[in-house]
């Protein structure tokens, strides 16, 4: 399956790291909840790495879900759900070992992000883990030139750019309803409130893979 977001320069490596973590940790039969699954690319990678695990994708887009469901038969489940209306989402497994989300959290308000994290935590087995893969919010105008240098390097090496801006003012002006990544300190605070420890597992530019587990 071709990556539907193939233009993103650091995504292939970071998704591979996410999948590697799950593939190494998973027990046979473990369920992996993927919020904002789109057309099922992560499910494709997960099942290629381990054919004895059970991905469950959730998305609000019916066309994407239909594309995803058509590929995997009974090896995965896809559920319609809006992450701003969590009570209505009914995953087919009561508990999951992993709850992940890839490049979706920036679509949610901070209030909704926090609610989704609490909901993810409630879906987890006792030793379950949360993995968030998304951009982090930049907050420091005085550090922006350094971030720009890193973006420029990523573009030079990969031949394509991630979402960037020429100035901090332009970066802030680009924030919107569908582009509002959270700050790293917010994630730490939100996880702390849930009794979860969290840390960055991998960072490329301002795109982070964050892991969290109960203390
Ligand atoms: C950029 S795509 C990422 C898709 C997939 N995770 C991947 O990495 O290939 C973001 C996905 O999040 C979904 N999404 C955004 N907001 C959502 C919400 N409130 N509830 C459910 N899905 C949402 C979109 O429909 C879209 O499929």
Describe the structure.
This protein is an alpha/beta fold and 215 residues long. It has two domains: 11-137 and 179-214, 3-Layer(aba) Sandwich (Rossmann fold), CATH 3.40.50; 141-172, no CATH class. Helix content is 38%, strand content 24%. The protein has helices spanning 11-25, 41-49, 62-72, 110-123, 144-158, 168-174, 184-193; strands spanning 31-35, 54-59, 77-80, 96-102, 124-135, 196-204, 207-214. A seven-stranded mixed beta sheet has the order 3-2-1-4-5-7-6, sandwiched between helices. α2 links the parallel β1 and β2. α1 (11-25) packs across α2. The protein is globular, with a radius of gyration of 17 Å. The mean pLDDT is 96. The structure holds S-adenosylmethionine. S-adenosylmethionine (SAM) binds at residues 4-5, 36-38, 41-42, 59-61, 64, 81-84, 102-104, 107.
Which helices and strands, and how do they pair?
Blueprint: H1 11-25, E1 31-35, H2 41-49, E2 54-59, H3 62-72, E3 77-80, E4 96-102, H4 110-123, E5 124-135, H5 144-158, H6 168-174, H7 184-193, E6 196-204, E7 207-214
Parallel strand pairs: 1-2, 1-4, 2-3, 4-5
Antiparallel strand pairs: 5-7, 6-7
Helix pairs in contact: 1-2
Structural class: alpha/beta
Kindly provide the radius of gyration, computed on alpha-carbon positions and rounded to a whole number of angstroms. Answer: 17 Å
- The number of helical runs is 7
Stretches where pLDDT is under 50 for at least 5 consecutive residues are none
CATH class bucket of the largest domain: Alpha Beta
* Secondary-structure element pattern, one letter each: HEHEHEEHEHHHEE
Reported by name, the CATH topology of the largest domain is Rossmann fold
Helicity range: 25-40%
Kindly report the spatial arrangement of strands forming the biggest sheet: 3-2-1-4-5-7-6
What sort of overall outline do the alpha carbons produce when their principal axes are compared? Answer: globular
Report the count of strand segments. Answer: 7
Gap between N and C termini: 37 Å
The quaternary organization reads as single chain
Total domain count: 2
CATH architectural category of the largest domain = 3-Layer(aba) Sandwich
Give me the CATH superfamily of the largest domain: Vaccinia Virus protein VP39
The ligands bound in this entry are: S-adenosylmethionine
> Biggest β-sheet, characterized?
7 strands, mixed
Strand content: 15-25%
């Amino acid at each position: 399956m071709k990556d539907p977001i193939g233009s993103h320069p650091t995504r292939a490596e970071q998704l591979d790291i996410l999948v590697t973590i799950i593939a190494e940790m998973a027990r046979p039969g473990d369920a992996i909840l993927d919020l904002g699954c789109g057309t099922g690319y992560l499910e494709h990678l997960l099942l290629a790495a381990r054919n004895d695990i059970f991905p469950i994708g959730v998305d609000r887009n019916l066309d994407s879900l239909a594309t995803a469901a058509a590929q995997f038969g009974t090896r995965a489940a896809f559920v319609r759900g809006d992450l701003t209306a969590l009570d209505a989402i009914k995953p087919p497994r009561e508990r999951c070992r992993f709850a992940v989300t890839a490049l979706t959290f920036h679509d949610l308000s901070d209030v909704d992000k926090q609610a989704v994290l609490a909901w993810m935590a409630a879906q987890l087995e006792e030793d379950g883990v949360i993995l968030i893969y998304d951009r982090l919010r930049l907050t420091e105008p005085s550090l922006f030139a350094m971030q720009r240098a890193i973006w420029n390097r990523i573009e030079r090496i990969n031949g394509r750019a991630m979402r960037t801006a020429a100035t901090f003012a332009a970066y802030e002006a680009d924030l919107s309803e569908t582009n509002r990544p959270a700050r790293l300190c917010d994630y730490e605070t939100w996880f702390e409130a849930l009794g979860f420890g969290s840390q960055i597992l991998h960072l490329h530019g301002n795109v982070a893979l964050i892991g969290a587990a109960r203390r």
